[in-house]
């Protein structure tokens, strides 16, 4: 089945003046074509802008002079960074450095915090996601999010995955819906484990299975980007390994940004790594370079365990 990535508003979305995000990505082609790993251009040796000089890479998300404030406190201090199509980029840094706050700016999750204010631009496919006329519901369909703690709905396994496609009108009939659910569970590496109990509660699964169910729920509405905020922090090592393997597979079809406190995990799953410190983006580079020859002394101090 072929689905159009530009989601049409359903009757539950009423603001006719809102402008849906446009995308020319063809899902079927993206599923069939394998993307090469990212090769990185040169970056500033001090606090980096995160902007590559390699013009051949397709930029999926571009953050430009992004500041985030909680009341009068500045949590993010003028960050510039590009995220490329079909890459996995890891955000690392000590607690309170701003990495999760910045991740949440990429699909406007900070909008739910009354005291939070964002300035600057965040472009998705060259469209400003902070445009006041943009439909945030449709944005979050295209930029999905997987949270730190698995949060399945109090519904059956099937209905957890089917909820989004139903809401956005992606299934024309029951057969289409069943196909979307099965394909999403297969992509999440969960189908073989749950195919005989789709009507059982999603909350009855193990922690690792619940997290993969949440990933299946996210990809069921055909997002362009998946944001992951410490998705393995509550999981055991075996479940973590399964999710990490899944991340590598999903990067062939999706752009993924992941926040992690585990530097080993960042090294295993990401093409590039960005290091945050006290609201600043200190360095962004290929993951291999960040962990073997970092440009900035703060990065080296963090990855060698001198603080953090």
Automatic annotation (TrEMBL):
Gene3D superfamilies: P-loop containing nucleotide triphosphate hydrolases
Alphabetical GO biological process terms: phosphate ion transmembrane transport
Domain of life: Bacteria
Keywords for this protein: ATP-binding, Nucleotide-binding, Phosphate transport, Transport
Entry GO MF terms: ATP binding; ATP hydrolysis activity; phosphate transmembrane transporter activity
Record's GO cellular component terms: membrane
Domain ABC transporter: 61-303
Entry-linked PROSITE patterns: ABC_TRANSPORTER_1 (PS00211), ABC_TRANSPORTER_2 (PS50893)
Start-end of Polar residues biased regions: 42-51
Taxonomic lineage: Bacteria, Pseudomonadati, Pseudomonadota, Gammaproteobacteria, Moraxellales
Compositional bias segments (type: Low complexity): 22-35
Annotated stretches, region: Disordered: 1-51
Protein name: Phosphate transport system ATP-binding protein
Xref: InterPro entries: AAA+_ATPase (IPR003593), ABC_transporter-like_ATP-bd (IPR003439), ABC_transporter-like_CS (IPR017871), P-loop_NTPase (IPR027417), PstB-like (IPR005670)
């Amino acid at each position: 089945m072929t689905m159009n990535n530009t989601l049409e508003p359903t009757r539950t979305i009423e603001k006719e003046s809102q402008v849906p995000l446009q995308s020319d990505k063809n899902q079927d082609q993206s599923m069939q074509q394998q993307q090469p790993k990212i090769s990185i251009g040169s970056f500033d040796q001090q606090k980096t802008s995160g902007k590559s000089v390699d013009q051949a890479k397709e930029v999926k998300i571009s953050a430009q002079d992004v500041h985030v404030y909680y009341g009068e406190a500045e949590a993010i201090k003028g960050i510039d960074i590009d995220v490329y199509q079909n890459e996995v980029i890891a955000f690392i840094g000590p607690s309170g450095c701003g990495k999760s706050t910045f991740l949440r700016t990429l699909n406007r999750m900070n909008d739910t915090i009354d005291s939070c204010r964002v300035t600057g631009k965040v472009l998705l496919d060259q469209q400003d996601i902070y445009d006041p006329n943009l439909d945030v519901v449709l944005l979050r369909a295209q930029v999905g999010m997987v949270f730190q703690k698995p949060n399945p709905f109090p519904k059956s396994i099937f209905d957890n995955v089917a909820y989004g496609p139903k809401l956005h009108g992606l299934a024309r009939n029951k057969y289409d819906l069943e196909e979307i659910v099965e394909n999403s569970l297969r992509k999440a590496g969960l189908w073989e484990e749950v195919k005989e109990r789709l009507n059982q509660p999603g909350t009855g699964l193990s922690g690792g299975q619940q997290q993969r169910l949440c990933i299946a729920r996210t990809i069921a509405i055909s997002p362009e980007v998946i944001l992951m905020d410490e998705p393995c922090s509550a999981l055991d090592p075996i479940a973590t390994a399964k999710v990490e393997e899944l991340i590598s597979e999903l990067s062939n079809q999706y752009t993924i940004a992941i926040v992690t406190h585990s530097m080993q995990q960042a090294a295993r799953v990401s093409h590039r790594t960005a290091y945050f410190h006290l609201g600043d983006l200190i360095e962004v580079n290929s993951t291999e370079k960040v962990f073997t020859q970092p440009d900035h002394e703060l990065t080296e101090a963090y990855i060698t365990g001198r603080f953090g």
